Amino acid sequence: MQIPVERLVDRFLRYVQMDTQSREGVAEYPSTEGQRQFLQMLARELEELGLKEVELDQHFYLTATLPSNLQTQVPVIGFIAHVDTSPEVSGAGVKPIIHRHYDGQRIQLPGDPSVVLSPETDPELANCIGQDIITSDGTTLLGADDKAGIAEILTAMEYLLSHPEIPHGTIRLAFTPDEEVGRGTDFFDVGRFGAHYAYTVDGGAAGEVENETFCADTMTVRFHGVNVHPGYAKGKMVNAIKLAARLVDKLPKASMSPETTDGREGYVHPHAIEGGVELAEVRLLIRDFEVEGLKEKERYLSRLAARIARQVPGSRVEIQIKESYRNMRYKLEEEPRVVDFAVEAIRRAGLEPKLTSIRGGTDGARLCYQGLLTPNLFTGGHNFHSRREWISVQDMARAVTTLVHLVQIWAEKGPIR
Ligand SMILES: [Zn+2]
Is 43 a residue whose pLDDT tops 90? Predict the structure, then answer.
């Protein structure tokens, strides 16, 4: 498959130079003007490419269709990418640099010499010797997350349009704002989108398919004390602050926290504490890859809180648990073809597929629970949300190849169920 790499790179470089950083805590949607302008430009590009039903709705969700070229009915497949970049690092005035034929040495970024990429700190760079690496100049993030995904999807569509001999069903595209501030699917209308299955193109290293997310709950532990004038409090005052502090102090020190776990381990994470003598509350994030593990952690915390309250007469504890999201694997298992076909497409693109899990949630996970199964495919990018973000041009081309294979596989062996 001969992917037009120059056009892919040209798109990518143009996109990253537009500032689409999203902003936290903004009522307006999308949260920034830059995203609106970018989406309007992207809409024109989709039309110029020859895609159909190009539509930018009132929430600035941009959707489009590549019609099927088959006589038979196969599932409608969606590709989704987000247009915003992380609020954590500036995305204004991005000056992308292509380091051609990477030689395996350290890359010092000219805009800030303290920003250095090297195979020691980024082992994946060692796999990219001879490839073309794109970085920022070190003063901003690059924005491969997720402009690589956008450039890859458009290039795959362009390829399919210029190769009508490649069989594919109807393909739906969606480009969404405000993913990085957790609002990427706030107004996403799964029914209107009309895909049977979808893929976000928003992942990392070449070959990866993310099919798991955390299961997540939030827990509020509220201690009630008794407040009286401190000068006359002997035998009467019960200080809720001290109960809350005791709970935090009793949490395991060497395990079960964000700072002591990785891989498939879950954690409990007190992230806010607030209150006074009368009432103090500790808010915790509970995370695990399995619901059972989540429930176990919640039982453990509830028992701990109850024991603390029992030890102090006059106090009382209330516990509130709210579900945040669930591991998308539970949903994806309902239709194994969605991940299986992605794995096969990656193999056909000449890569070793790797199923990975995300220690967080994704837009795709939310969509899975809204009825649209949506695992996450790699873009080839690394070090997202940082000034050390980088991507290999050759990996981007492999992502395009993967998307083309994927729609072909659905056309070959994906009758609607
Ligand atoms: Zn992303």
Answer: yes
* Amino acid type, 396: M
106, 114 contact by CB (below 8 A) = no
Closest to 202 measured CA to CA, from 14, 6, 381, 391: 381
Q: Which domains does the chain have, with CATH numbers?
A: 5-213+328-413 (3.40.630.10), 217-324 (3.30.70.360)
Q: Ligand 1 (ion): which residues have CB within 5 A?
A: 145-146, 202
Active site residue 179: yes
360 band by pLDDT with thresholds 50, 70 and 90: confident
Q: Which residues contact 247 (CB under 8 A, 6 or more apart)?
A: 221, 223, 282, 304, 305, 308
Clarify whether 395 is annotated catalytic.
no
- What is the pTM (predicted TM-score) of this model? 0.90
DSSP state of 277: S
Distance from Cα 14 to the centre of ligand 1, integer Å: 18
DSSP 123: G
